[in-house]
């Protein structure tokens, strides 16, 4: 029998999470769950930069898509079972997904990504906003 520390906010956190964590049998198996990789979003004069930590995720297991002004990053970190007894598993494995609403001044055609050493960098180039982006409507 093993002791598990009780967290009174676990259910509360999962209530607001878009997907709940599904745990499989801990004895001799991996913990399968949905998880969210850590992300930093920064901005300078020419672009937005999204840095995503994806250690032990292969480039082939990452998908980046744009749909209806949303950028979605998804993929999977696979658990490779070894013939070793598991004592502690604190890292998450399984499917992940993050979605970002693109600002109006992002040029969707000029988004590019690079992946190196477990860090995915998404460069979202800014475009000029139309001069007449604000419009007043007369009331009759």
UniProtKB/TrEMBL annotation:
<protein>
    <submittedName>
        <fullName>Hsp20/alpha crystallin family protein</fullName>
    </submittedName>
</protein>
<dbReference type="Pfam" id="PF00011">
    <property type="entry name" value="HSP20"/>
</dbReference>
<feature type="domain" description="SHSP">
    <location>
        <begin position="29"/>
        <end position="140"/>
    </location>
</feature>
<dbReference type="InterPro" id="IPR031107">
    <property type="entry name" value="Small_HSP"/>
</dbReference>
<dbReference type="InterPro" id="IPR002068">
    <property type="entry name" value="A-crystallin/Hsp20_dom"/>
</dbReference>
<dbReference type="InterPro" id="IPR008978">
    <property type="entry name" value="HSP20-like_chaperone"/>
</dbReference>
<comment type="similarity">
    <text>Belongs to the small heat shock protein (HSP20) family.</text>
</comment>
């Amino acid at each position: 029998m093993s002791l598990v520390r009780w967290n009174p906010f676990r259910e509360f956190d999962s209530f607001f999470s878009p997907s709940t964590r599904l745990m499989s049998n801990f004895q001799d198996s991996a913990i399968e769950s949905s998880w969210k990789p850590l992300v930093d979003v920064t901005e300078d004069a020419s672009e937005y930069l999204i840095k995503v930590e994806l250690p032990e995720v292969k480039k082939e297991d990452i998908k980046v898509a744009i749909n209806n002004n949303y950028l979605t990053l998804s993929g999977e970190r696979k658990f490779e079972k070894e013939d070793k007894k598991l004592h502690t598993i604190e890292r998450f494995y399984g499917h992940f997904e993050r979605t970002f609403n693109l600002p109006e001044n992002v040029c969707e055609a000029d988004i590019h990504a690079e992946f190196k050493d477990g860090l995915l960098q998404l460069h979202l180039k800014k475009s000029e906003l139309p001069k007449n982006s604000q419009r007043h409507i007369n009331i009759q």
